[in-house]
Amino acid sequence: GSEMCIRDRVKATVREIDDQVKAYEAARKEEKLRAIQEQYRAMIGDLAELAPFDSLDAFRQGFLSARSWVKAQQGSGTGGGAGGGRVSSGTGSGGPVTAVQEPQNMEPSPAESPFMDLAAVPWARESIAYLASVGAVSGVGDGRFEPMGPVKREEFLKMALNVFGYTVRSGRTPFADVERDAWYENYVYTACSEAVVNGVSETLFGVGDPITRQDAAVLLTRIFSGVDKRLDVTPGGALPGDLSQTADYAAAAVTAMFKAGVLSGDENGDFQPQSQLTRAEAAKMIYGVLNSVR
Question: How many whole angstroms separate alpha carbon 76 and alpha carbon 84?
Answer without folding.
Answer: 10
